TrEMBL record:
Its EC number is 1.17.1.8. (S)-2,3,4,5-tetrahydrodipicolinate binds at residues 159, 168-169. Gene3D superfamilies: Dihydrodipicolinate Reductase, domain 2, NAD(P)-binding Rossmann-like Domain. Residues 7-128 form the Dihydrodipicolinate reductase N-terminal domain. It catalyses: (S)-2,3,4,5-tetrahydrodipicolinate + NAD(+) + H2O = (2S,4S)-4-hydroxy-2,3,4,5-tetrahydrodipicolinate + NADH + H(+); (S)-2,3,4,5-tetrahydrodipicolinate + NADP(+) + H2O = (2S,4S)-4-hydroxy-2,3,4,5-tetrahydrodipicolinate + NADPH + H(+). One of its GO terms (molecular function) is 4-hydroxy-tetrahydrodipicolinate reductase. It comes from the Bacteria. The keyword Nuclease does not apply. It is an enzyme of class 1 (oxidoreductase). This is 4-hydroxy-tetrahydrodipicolinate reductase. The gene is dapB. It comes from Tropicimonas isoalkanivorans. One of its GO terms (biological process) is lysine biosynthetic process via diaminopimelate. Pfam families: DapB_C, DapB_N. Its main location: cytoplasm.
Amino acid sequence: MSETPGIVVMGASGRMGQMLVREVQAHPRMRLVGAVERPGHDWIGQDLGTAMNGPATGLRVTDDPLEAIAHAQGVIDFTTPETTVELSTLTAQARAVHVIGTTGLSDADIEKLDAAARHAVIVRAGNMSLGVNLLTQLTRQVAAALDADFDIEVVEAHHRHKVDAPSGTALMLGEAAAAGRGLDFREAYVAARDGITGARAPGTIGFSAIRGGDIVGEHDVIFAGAGERIVLRHVASDRAIFARGALKAALWGQDRMPGHYSMLDVLGL
């Protein structure tokens, strides 16, 4: 592995994109070799540093991911499902590590990522933070330890600009709870309730989503029994934790065998 692998940041103008740019630039073991935005974006052709209201970097923002990825060993991608699937073909051809923080991926999307992962390393997670991935493991263990008399609910809160619900992290936690209980997650999943819903069905996992203000990310997994509740909680106060986790994944993936990995693999959990 190169001591300083070249990294491309997709969606460089977004809040997470700019955070990733800054974290890569500050990292002693990697270098920023590409910043990509969608065609027609105001940043296209501009110096990245100038576009971010800082000093010039000599790196211009492009709308051509193929050109950027050709010179990279890693691609960090917090974009959209459609974009992520398209990029997976390019990263597979370049044998670049594709770190995916995109949420809202469908089963069909994931099948396409699995196909790309036969040729290159993909690290995909609904959340890149250490704390959330520890919470995922705890959720699975608690779900396995408690019997079906404890109902499971996942409550998540994010900023007003988030477009998908429940969050990818909430779904990841729900999947962990289902695995701990030995349930089929798709059958156990219950979205936000409204109206006369009737009594709670046994063996289900409920979800509630809150959207407002500048909430970075909060997740509660509630195990509610008769006379007691267990609540597992993670609160993110700085989205830099997600960026740092993504960088850790990009370094971890260098010289790995092709495959579709998660942050649990990266963290040895």
